[in-house]
C-alpha cells in the first residue's frame, strides 16, 4: 500500500449487473445489457431496434456479473483503513438491482456474504493477527430519511440529529451513538439491529425497497510503536453507504407517503449528481455539498481525504433501459473525481489515547495502595481462555491470602485485648471499637481495590490486539501465512488484469489511427474494403454520439423543467411573503427583522437573533434569551390586576377595562331564506303508492302432474285459433277522414 500523502487517485467505479428476474421474463422483456468482464466494458442496446449504432459501450475499472467482488476490488480499501486512511464504498442504482444485497448479502452463507460481513471478517482477522499493535474498533449506524438523520442503534430511532462541522472533528453528526466492538459477533449484531430499524416499504419494483440512505461507519484506531520507541496513533474510518433507489417516480407509481419519500430521495441524489458534476468540471468554483445531508456527510469521500469506490448496480431488462443508461452515465462521470487520501496520524478525537491514559491511571492507583495489587495480565480480545483464567486464579489467591493474613492479625489482637485482665473496661471497649473500625476500613479498601481491578480489566478488554496470538499453534501460524500469500497473489493477479484491461483499451483506441497511417494498398478492392470498414465504424460512432446527445438533451430538458417548477414555487412564496410584509407589517418592524435575520449554515435555514442584540453572535457563544410576560399580563397585551379582571367580568362599565375596546352584539338581520316544504300529492296518488308498497301474500301453486302435464296441440286447431272469423272483420271499425275543414 502506498503511503504517499500528496498522491491523488481517482474514484474507482465498479459495475455489477444482476441476472434477469422471473417477473421480467414472464412479462416478455428482453435483456439489453451485456457485460464483458475481460475488457471491463458494459454494452447497453436500445430495445426493439435493429439499427446500427443503437448501442452504447461504457468502460470502467471493473465490470462484474453476479459473481464475488470483495477480494478483487474491496480488499485494498479495507486494508488501507486498517493503516489509517479513510475509505468509502457506496452502492448506487435503481430499486431492485441488488444494492442492499451488495452491501449486506447473506451473512450465514460464506459464498453469498456481502461487503459488510466480509469487511468485518477482514478487520478482526487483521486485528487478531497483529503482534505489537493495539486496536480499538467502534461502529455507528445511521440513515437519512426524508432529509432527516436518524440513529439506527437507538431504541428511539426516530429522533432527529444534526450535522455540524468543527476544526477538530470535521463534519460529524451530533449525539450519534458509537458502540465499541470486540469481535465479529458484536459488530454483526449491530448490523442486524440497524437493519431492522431501517425505513423500508413496498413499491411496484420491490416489495422490500429501502426508502432511506443508510451509512454504516466503522472506526479503527491503532497504536503502534516506531523503531525509535515512540508510540503513534492512527485512525481510519470506513463508510459503507447503501443509497436508496434512483428510479423515476413514474416507474413506482408512488402515492401519499411513498411519493414524499421518493421526492426527498431524488432531491439528495440530484444534489449528489450536482456535486459530481461540479468536481469534474474544472471551471466550476463552487461545490454544493451543503444542499443535502447526504453530500454533507460524504464531503470527504468526494474530492477529499478518502479512498472511494462506487458500485453501480444495474438491471439487464429492457424495461429499465433509461435507468440503466442514467446509472452508467452517472458512474462514468464519477470516475473523473480526484481524491487526496492521507493517513490520519494522532487525531485529536481518538478514544484509544484516552483509554490508555485511564488504564495507566488505574494501575498507578492500584500500585499506590497498601494491599499488594494483583498480577494482572492484559486481557486482549484475542487472548486465549486458558491464560485469562490463570491470571484470575492468581489474583484471587493473592487477594484471599492477604485478607486471611489481616484477619488473623486482627483476631489475635482482639483476643489479647479480651484476655487482658488489668485493662479498664472503658479502655478495652475503646480498643475493640478501634479494631472494628480498622476491620471495616480494610474491607472497604479491599472492595475499592476489587472495583478498580474490575474497571481495569474492562478497559483492557476493549483494547484489541494479537499479543497472545504469538503463542498459538504452529499450524495456525502456517495457515495464516498461506492465506496472506494467497491474498497477495490475488491482489497481484487483479493488478495484472487491470493493467491488461487498460492496454486493451489503449490498443482499441489506437487501431483507427494505425489504419489511417497505412498508405499503401495491394489493390483497389482492398482499399475499398478498408474504407468501408472505417466508414462503418465512423457511422456507428456518429450514431452513438447522436443518441447520447439526444439523451443528454432530454435529461437537460427534464431537469430544466423541474428547476423552473421549483423556481416558480419559490417565487410565488416570496411574492406572498412580500405582499404580507408590505400590507400588514410596519416599515420599522421590517427593518428590525432584516437586521436580526442571518443564515445558519449548520441548519441550512434563516434564523433571527435575540431582540436585545441585532448583531450576529459569535460562533459557539449563541445564547437564546426568552422574554416572559408577567403573570398579570398572561393572555393579554398589557398588565391588569386581579380585581380589575373580576370587576370587568361582572360590570359592563369601561372603568375596569384595560383595553379600549367596545364589546357590541351583532346587529340582527331579517331572514332571507325559507324552510323546505315537500310537494303535496293528490289523495288518489298517495293511496296508489301505499297500495303498491304493501306486502303481497304468498302465491301458492299446485305442482301436481295433472296440472303441468304437457299435451300436444293439433295443427289444425292451432291454425283455427289464429284465424280471425269473417264476421268479426266486417264489424271492425276503422278511422275515416273528415275531409276539408270549413273556414
Helix content: 40-55%
Amino-to-carboxy terminus distance: 124 Å
What kind of assembly state do the chains in view correspond to?
A: single chain
Which whole number gives the mean pLDDT?
Answer: 73
How much beta, percentage-wise? Answer: 5-15%
The CATH class of the domain at 66-312 is identified as Alpha Beta
Structural class: alpha+beta
Q: How many β strands by DSSP?
A: 21
Biggest sheet overview = 10 strands, mixed
The name of the CATH architecture of the domain at 66-312 is 3-Layer(aba) Sandwich
Number of helices: 19
- In CATH, the topology of the domain at 66-312 is named Kinesin
CA radius of gyration is 43 Å
- Which homologous superfamily in CATH is the superfamily of the domain at 66-312? Kinesin motor domain
Low-pLDDT stretches: 1-5, 370-393, 467-475, 613-622
Described by the principal axes of the CA atoms, the overall outline is extended
Mind explaining what this structure looks like?
There is one protein chain. By secondary structure, the chain is an alpha+beta fold. Among the domains are: 247 residues, 3-Layer(aba) Sandwich (Kinesin), CATH 3.40.850.10; 120 residues, no CATH class; 67 residues; 35 residues, no CATH class. It is built from 19 helices and 21 strands. Strands 2, 6, 7, 8, 9, 12, 15, 16, 17 and 19 form a ten-stranded mixed beta sheet that branches. A three-stranded antiparallel beta sheet has the order 3-4-5, covered by helices on one side. A hairpin with a 3-residue loop joins strand 10 and strand 11. The longest helix is centred in the C-terminal third of the chain and has 61 residues. It comes from Echinococcus multilocularis. This is Kinesin-like protein. Its main location: cytoplasm. Keywords: ATP-binding, Coiled coil, Cytoplasm, Cytoskeleton, Microtubule, Motor protein, Nucleotide-binding. GO terms for molecular function: ATP binding; microtubule binding; microtubule motor activity.
Amino acid at each position: 500500500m502506498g503511503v504517499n500523502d500528496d498522491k491523488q487517485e481517482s474514484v474507482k467505479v465498479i459495475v455489477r449487473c444482476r441476472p434477469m428476474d422471473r417477473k421480467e421474463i414472464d412479462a416478455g422483456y428482453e435483456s439489453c445489457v451485456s457485460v464483458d468482464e475481460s475488457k471491463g466494458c458494459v454494452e447497453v442496446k436500445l430495445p426493439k431496434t435493429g439499427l446500427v449504432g443503437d448501442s452504447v459501450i461504457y468502460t470502467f475499472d471493473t465490470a462484474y456479473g453476479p459473481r464475488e467482488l470483495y477480494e478483487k476490488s474491496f480488499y485494498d480499501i479495507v486494508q488501507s483503513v486498517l493503516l489509517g486512511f479513510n475509505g468509502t464504498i457506496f452502492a448506487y442504482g435503481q430499486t431492485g438491482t441488488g444494492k442492499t444485497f451488495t452491501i449486506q448479502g447473506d451473512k450465514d452463507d460464506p459464498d453469498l456474504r456481502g461487503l459488510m460481513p466480509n469487511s468485518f471478517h477482514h478487520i478482526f482477522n487483521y486485528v487478531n493477527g497483529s503482534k505489537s499493535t493495539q486496536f480499538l474498533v467502534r461502529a455507528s449506524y445511521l440513515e437519512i430519511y426524508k432529509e432527516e438523520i436518524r440513529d439506527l442503534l437507538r431504541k428511539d430511532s426516530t429522533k432527529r440529529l444534526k450535522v455540524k462541522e468543527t476544526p477538530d472533528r470535521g463534519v460529524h453528526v451530533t449525539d450519534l451513538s458509537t458502540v465499541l466492538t470486540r469481535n465479529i459477533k458484536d459488530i454483526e449484531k449491530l448490523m442486524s439491529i440497524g437493519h431492522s430499524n431501517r425505513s423500508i416499504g413496498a413499491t411496484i419494483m420491490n416489495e422490500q425497497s429501502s426508502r432511506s440512505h443508510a451509512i454504516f461507519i466503522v472506526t479503527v484506531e491503532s497504536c503502534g510503536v516506531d523503531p525509535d520507541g515512540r508510540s503513534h496513533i492512527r485512525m481510519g474510518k470506513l463508510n459503507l453507504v447503501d443509497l436508496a433507489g434512483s428510479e423515476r417516480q413514474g416507474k413506482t407509481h408512488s402515492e401519499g407517503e411513498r411519493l414524499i419519500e421518493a421526492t426527498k430521495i431524488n432531491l439528495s441524489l440530484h444534489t449528489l449528481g450536482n456535486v459530481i458534476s461540479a468536481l469534474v468540471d474544472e471551471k466550476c468554483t463552487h461545490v454544493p455539498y451543503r444542499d443535502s445531508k447526504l453530500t454533507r456527510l460524504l464531503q470527504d469521500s468526494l474530492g477529499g481525504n478518502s479512498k472511494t469506490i462506487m458500485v453501480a448496480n444495474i438491471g439487464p431488462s429492457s424495461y429499465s433501459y433509461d435507468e440503466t443508461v442514467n446509472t452508467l452515465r452517472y458512474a462514468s462521470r464519477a470516475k473523473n473525481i480526484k481524491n487526496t487520501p492521507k493517513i490520519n496520524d494522532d487525531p485529536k478525537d481518538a478514544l484509544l489515547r484516552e483509554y490508555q491514559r485511564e488504564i495507566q491511571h488505574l494501575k498507578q492507583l492500584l500500585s499506590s495502595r497498601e494491599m499488594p495489587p494483583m498480577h494482572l495480565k492484559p486481557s486482549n480480545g484475542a487472548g486465549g481462555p486458558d491464560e485469562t483464567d490463570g491470571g484470575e486464579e492468581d489474583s484471587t489467591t493473592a487477594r484471599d491470602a492477604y485478607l486471611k493474613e489481616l484477619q488473623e492479625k486482627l483476631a489475635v489482637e482482639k483476643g489479647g485485648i479480651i484476655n487482658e485482665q488489668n485493662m479498664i473496661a472503658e479502655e478495652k471497649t475503646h480498643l475493640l471499637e478501634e479494631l472494628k473500625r480498622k476491620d471495616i476500613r480494610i474491607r472497604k479498601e479491599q472492595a475499592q481495590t476489587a472495583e478498580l481491578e474490575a474497571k481495569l480489566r474492562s478497559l483492557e478488554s476493549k483494547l484489541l490486539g494479537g499479543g497472545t496470538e504469538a503463542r498459538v499453534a504452529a499450524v495456525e501460524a502456517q495457515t495464516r501465512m498461506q492465506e496472506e500469500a494467497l491474498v497477495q497473489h490475488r491482489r497481484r493477479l487483479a493488478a495484472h488484469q487491470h493493467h491488461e484491461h487498460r492496454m486493451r483499451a489503449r490498443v482499441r483506441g489506437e487501431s483507427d489511427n494505425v489504419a489511417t497511417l497505412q498508405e499503401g494498398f495491394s489493390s483497389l478492392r482492398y482499399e475499398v474494403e478498408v474504407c468501408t470498414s472505417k466508414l462503418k465504424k465512423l457511422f456507428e460512432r456518429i450514431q452513438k454520439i447522436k443518441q447520447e446527445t439526444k439523451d443528454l438533451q432530454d435529461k437537460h430538458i427534464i431537469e430544466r423543467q423541474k428547476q423552473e417548477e421549483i423556481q416558480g414555487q419559490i417565487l410565488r412564496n416570496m411574492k406572498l411573503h412580500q405582499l404580507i410584509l408590505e400590507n400588514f407589517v410596519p416599515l420599522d418592524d421590517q427593518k428590525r427583522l432584516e437586521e436580526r435575520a442571518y443564515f445558519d449554515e449548520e441548519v441550512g435555514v434563516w434564523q433571527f437573533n435575540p431582540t436585545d442584540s441585532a448583531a450576529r453572535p459569535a460562533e459557539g457563544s449563541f445564547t437564546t434569551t426568552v422574554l416572559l410576560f408577567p403573570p398579570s399580563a398572561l393572555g393579554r397585551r398589557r398588565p391588569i390586576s386581579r380585581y380589575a379582571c373580576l370587576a370587568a367580568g361582572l360590570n359592563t362599565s369601561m372603568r375596569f377595562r384595560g383595553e379600549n375596546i367596545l364589546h357590541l352584539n351583532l346587529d340582527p338581520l331579517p331572514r332571507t331564506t325559507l324552510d323546505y316544504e315537500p310537494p303535496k300529492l293528490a289523495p288518489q296518488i298517495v293511496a296508489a303508492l301505499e297500495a303498491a308498497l304493501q306486502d303481497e301474500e304468498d302465491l301458492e301453486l299446485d305442482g301436481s302432474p295433472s296440472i303441468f302435464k304437457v299435451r300436444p296441440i293439433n295443427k289444425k286447431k292451432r291454425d283455427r285459433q289464429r284465424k280471425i272469423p269473417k264476421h268479426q272483420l266486417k264489424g271492425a271499425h276503422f278511422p275515416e277522414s273528415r275531409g276539408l275543414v270549413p273556414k
